[in-house]
Design goal:
Layout lengths: L1 E2 L2 E5 L5 E5 L4 E3 L9 H15 L5 E9 L2 E10 L4 E3 L7 H4 L8 H18 L8 H15 L9 H15 L10 H16 L8 H20 L7 H8 L8 H14 L4 H7 L1 E2 L2 E2 L1 H34 L7 H30 L3 H10 L1 H31 L6 H26 L10
Parallel strand pairs: 4-5
Antiparallel strand pairs: 1-2, 2-3, 3-4, 5-6, 6-7, 8-9
Length: 436
């Protein structure tokens, strides 16, 4: 179907777009309902005359801004593998994901990523051969440490495996969410290569390959061209701040342990680096998150059983103080069980990358509060049980001196052990220096 000189094309994924062969221009606008086709073509003619580059591909999208029709556009430069514009452009939206975009070679990676994104959306007449598919597979091999094409030397394989281990612990594995999915990408590329006829990839394969190339180039841009990956830089090159008042730090760490999930604060910091979400770390965080919730449910159940036992013992649970503390402890235990059940469902939703990015990037404080609610219930429930027991023992139960001494000694050992664990988990670690 054509509209003037515009040909309607169907994308392999089902959408439609339009191509003008005489003007070498694409538009995603639905021309069936577009009433200003002549205005669109006039803009293309003026822009083409200013560019004076017949081989460049123009993509134009009409839009309404402040009640007036405007035309957003970009040019695709096939021989340079980049996109470009004729006027100066504010690059904040294009390069804003990277904290410090530096020289041209670095910024060019994102322009090349957008080049491949273009052909993912507009694959018409794009020629991709067997050599290019193999080149993509070789690039994937560098990340997953698989065997390259041809007879690879043993030293190369060893180096690739070491590199894969390092990248598996960094943000590289998050390009395709996990290393297993990266392997699946490699298998899919092999399938595409095996189905090539006459050395030319069909449009369905072009869309897939261009999508992978976009992900690779965008990942390289985010992780700083010609430098170690951002997470490795931060892990080895950041010097921790000196802590002058250790007592206040220790008290703050203790409060953090009591009122929020012990894994939450530190693990949130490792799920993203310079704003780059790390899928491997997010998955690990969610697994620990779920395990912690299950442990708290068990601990709350034990605390509730202890409260019931205290209230059932004649003379031990008959005081008002013991009854109040144990009753509140039971209610907090029930709240902990229900809260952790809901929080586990929240953790399941976190496996969605968009959902995780929303909370870990934009709603970090709210996320800590959400995870801290069941933990605070659990800690307060256990504390209420212990205080209820001690209150009953010290008031009307009239225990012997050996019982009081042994109870207090055991409580001191438990509290002291917990404080040691808190200090070890949240205290200052070894100073890391920048490698030379």
């Amino acid at each position: 179907m054509t509209y003037g000189n515009w040909q309607e094309l169907v994308h392999p994924l089902g959408g439609t777009y339009y191509y003008n062969n005489t003007k070498n221009a694409f538009t995603p606008t639905n021309l069936r309902r577009y009433m200003s086709l002549h205005t669109l073509e006039d803009f293309i003619d003026v822009s083409r005359a200013a560019a004076n580059e017949a081989d460049w591909i123009l993509v134009v999208f009409p839009t309404i801004f402040l009640g007036e029709e405007r035309f957003q556009y970009y040019y695709v430069v096939p021989d340079r593998h980049i996109i470009t514009w004729l006027e100066d452009l504010n690059g904040e939206l294009l390069f804003g994901e990277c904290v410090q975009p530096s020289e041209w070679r670095h910024k060019r990676l994102e322009l090349e990523a957008q080049y491949w994104k273009h052909f993912e959306f507009f694959p018409h007449q794009f020629q991709m051969g067997t050599v290019q598919v193999r080149r993509i597979r070789r690039e994937i091999v560098c990340y997953i440490g698989g065997e390259p094409y041809g007879a690879a030397a043993t030293a190369w394989i060893t180096r690739a495996k070491i590199e894969a281990t390092t990248l598996g612990q960094s943000s590289a594995a998050s390009m395709f969410w996990s290393l297993d999915q990266m392997n699946q990408i490699g298998a899919q590329l092999a399938t595409i290569e095996s189905l090539i006829d006459n050395g030319v990839v069909e449009e369905t394969g072009v869309v897939f390959c261009c999508r992978i190339l976009y992900i690779l180039r965008h990942h390289q841009f985010l992780n700083r061209h010609n430098q170690p990956e951002a997470r490795l830089i931060r892990s080895h090159a950041v010097r921790e701040k000196s802590r002058r008042c250790k007592l206040l730090v220790f008290m703050g760490n203790t409060a953090a342990m009591a009122m929020c999930m012990p894994i939450t604060v530190d693990r949130i910091k490792s799920t993203s680096v310079d704003g780059i979400m790390n899928g491997v770390e997010v998955n690990s965080f969610i697994d620990d998150f779920s395990s912690q919730a299950k442990g708290q449910i068990t601990l709350a159940g034990v605390s509730m059983a202890m409260d019931i036992a205290i209230l059932a013992i004649p003379g031990l649970g008959t005081t008002k103080t013991s009854q109040i503390l144990c009753s509140c402890s039971i209610l907090l235990g029930v709240g902990c069980i229900f809260a952790n059940t809901v929080v586990q469902h929240f953790g399941t939703r976190m496996r969605s990358m968009d959902f995780a990015a929303y909370y870990l990037r934009r709603k970090t404080k709210i996320f800590i509060v959400i995870t801290g609610i069941p933990t605070s219930f659990c800690v307060l429930s256990v504390t209420g049980s212990i205080l209820g027991f001690l209150s009953g023992v010290a008031t009307d139960f009239k225990p012997s001196a050996p019982l009081m001494i042994s109870s207090l000694a055991t409580l001191g050992v438990v509290v002291g052990s917990l404080l040691v664990l808190v200090f070890a988990s949240y205290g200052p670690g070894p100073v890391r220096v920048r490698p030379q």
